[in-house]
């Protein structure tokens, strides 16, 4: 039930965000005097609508987004009625059209920033003072699973060598057989490189006091660290999990209303950098998505669709990590806001780019004494627009399919 609730919460949050995106276009267009004839939530057959003034508002049957209709978005539009010629959007100054077309993304950014500020006060933001990478503080597990399977301990599984040796939760492992392990990844690699089933000397720190134990490592089947899709091999295991936060160090830090402002700015900056890097990686992740669809392992760094985001929301609520729903809401809004500003038709950024191209070209032609070539013919750009729609649609379908047949999961069930 909690899983279903989490799915619904994220799906509804996305729908509301997109509806507000379209409301941003509509309200700014109306403020400038442009004519807006329709504002609908969803697509497909109309379920319910009403008219107020010159605009029809309503709800469609398929709750996948929304739209608003602004008269005369391009000079080629034939939806301008007699008497409304001056209210056609394309006739307005470029700065007004830019505000209208960017209002959707600005709405997404505003939602994300407000959510970050509220999260900073009531939920906490990631602690920026955490060491990176984290030292090898560990949690001692009850057993080691002999096979390469993600499951709970079962009767007959070997007892954890770390538990038998007397290690405890939050101990910081500093060396294995005298080989320093600065972080948890180094700990795993060092242990796996040892002969399976052999004893090892574990140097650790507990409450600032150094100690040393001898543990008889277990022999288990695991996939190679350098080949996650490879066949399992026999390696050594200590029976610990991690990395754990150092004792007394919080994962998140909360702030007062004023202190939350710079914290929000810092988190937003990190989010912007992360979004830019994610957009750059999209072409490289297409083969990984195809691998996931055709039966291979799902790369956790691949993009997710609305389906994937909703499933992660369900998992988060089911496992009591409601904070992840907030972070998903923030990340999705910021990503959609940036994506919509890309200078490609039919995205908002494509319309903005064309408007400023027209303005720059008119300015240049005036300076060199040539006749203004006028507006861009959108009809000539339709092949490019269709190509963008086709590629975007195929990518969305691929991502949604991967999220259905081989979804990313953050929790072990």
From TrEMBL:
Subcellular location as annotated: Membrane
Listed cofactors: Zn(2+)
Record domain Peptidase M50: where: 10-361
UniProt main location, coarse: membrane
Keyword tags: Hydrolase, Membrane, Metalloprotease, Protease, Transmembrane, Transmembrane helix, Zinc
Domain PDZ span(s) in chain numbering: 157-194
Name this polypeptide is given: Site-2 protease family protein
Originating organism: Micromonospora humida
